[in-house]
Structure formats: structure tokens, C-alpha cells
Amino acid sequence: KLLMEAKIEKIIFKTSKKLWAVSNLVKKILVEDYGIPEDKIFVLHNGVDINKYHPLNDEERTKIREKMGLKENTLVMIFVGGDVHRKGLIRILHALKKNAINNYVLYAIGFIPDHKILSLSQGLNVKFLGKISENDLILYYQISDLNLLLSYFDPFPLVMLEGMASGSIPIVTPTVGASEIIINGNNGFIVKNETELTELLNNINHLDLNNIRKNAINTARKYSWDNIAKHLMSIIEK
After folding, report:
1. pLDDT of 41-75, one tens digit each?
2. pTM (whole model) above 0.90
3. For residue 171, which of 66, 40, 80 has the smallest C-alpha distance?
4. In a 3-state reduction of DSSP, which class is residue 67?
5. Rounded CA Rg of the chain
6. Most exposed residue of 70, 156, 166, 190, measured as fewest CB within 10 angstroms of its CB?
7. Nearest to 175 by CA among 17, 23, 2, 12
């Protein structure tokens, strides 16, 4: 079945007039692994519904965090994903074991942890929430400080834009397509591995997270689905 799907995929790629790659990372794979001519591929990043995914004001955010039992100076982090091993949760857990921050929480969303994940998370303040509703997910985006995704490969995950639009600062690896819209230290962070994540977390209190959060929100708004649709139409009409 997989071989048949691969053959069909290659036929579609080679016979299509144009191919839409959601990141330069994907374009590179199409060129190098599938032999697609570069001029046949256009790169247009994913979008986000900014009416649904939006930040809370500071007062609302503080009140909700207090209701959840979070202290004012708690560093709230989230990880959202199903394929936890590909998306680098183990890297994150290793980094947390070495970080010097005591007052933090990591909400892990979208999966049931296996034995390895549970074992690695012992002694860490990690809360596994499983699969939650979209409304609850938006709330966790809104109250979190950092959205962690240390994937080994990720074309362009929607969770990064959704989080940014909701006020959560992204931390990603260079092998995440969303890294292409992140300016390190300005609207998010790019780390190569768990060692760099540990270093970042150990110095996080010295950074202006409020300003970085605002930049992340403004970046995400540029990628509203309305704007993406307009760009797509301009490309198709050429």
C-alpha cells in the first residue's frame, strides 16, 4: 500500500502544473528527493484563523492563570502534538531535567504518554492533558508563555501559528518549517537541540518576554487565512 501511495504521489507531483510547498523545507525535499524543477514550486506558508486564535488582554490572562492555581511568576509552557517522538518531546524533557528554573509547568497536550515518556517526566512538573477540545486548546495557548516544538522534521505545523496568534512564544528547531517566519529572539526562538533549549530556559528571566510575545502576535496576524488566500490567488492568476 505504501509503495503504491508513493508511486501515485510521484505521478501527481510530476504531472501537476504547480506545486504548493508550505515551507522552503518542503520545497527542498520536492527538488532533491522527487526531482521536481524549482520553477514549478511556489512557497506559501500556512495560515491561521486570527478571529478564533487571539490573545487575551493582560488582566484576563492573569485572572485565568490565577484560577488555574498558577503563581504570578510561573513559567507556563505547552507542547502540542500527536507524534511526540518525531516532534521532540523527549528532547524537551531532557532539557527540563537540566534547567535551573524551579517555578514552571509544562502542559503536554494531544496524546497519551507511553512508558518511556512517563519515566522521563518523573521529577518534572509536567501535566499530561491528553486530547482536549479546541476551545480548551485555545485557552492553553492564551495563558502559556512558551510553545515548545523541537521536531526532527515538521513541514509547517499549524500549532505554531495558532500559538503565536494567541500570545504564546514559539521555540522551534531549524527543521520545523515555521522557523522560517521566526526571527530568533525577536518573535520567538530557534534552538538546535535540547542543550540550546536548556541554555535558553536558564536565561529566560533576563529576556523581555512581553515584547517578544507582542512581536509573535503581530507576525501571526500577517498570516491570516485571508492574507494567505489573497497571495494564493495572485499566484494562480499569473
Report:
1. 999 999 999 999 999 999 999 999 999 999 989 99
2. yes
3. 80
4. helix
5. 19
6. 70
7. 23
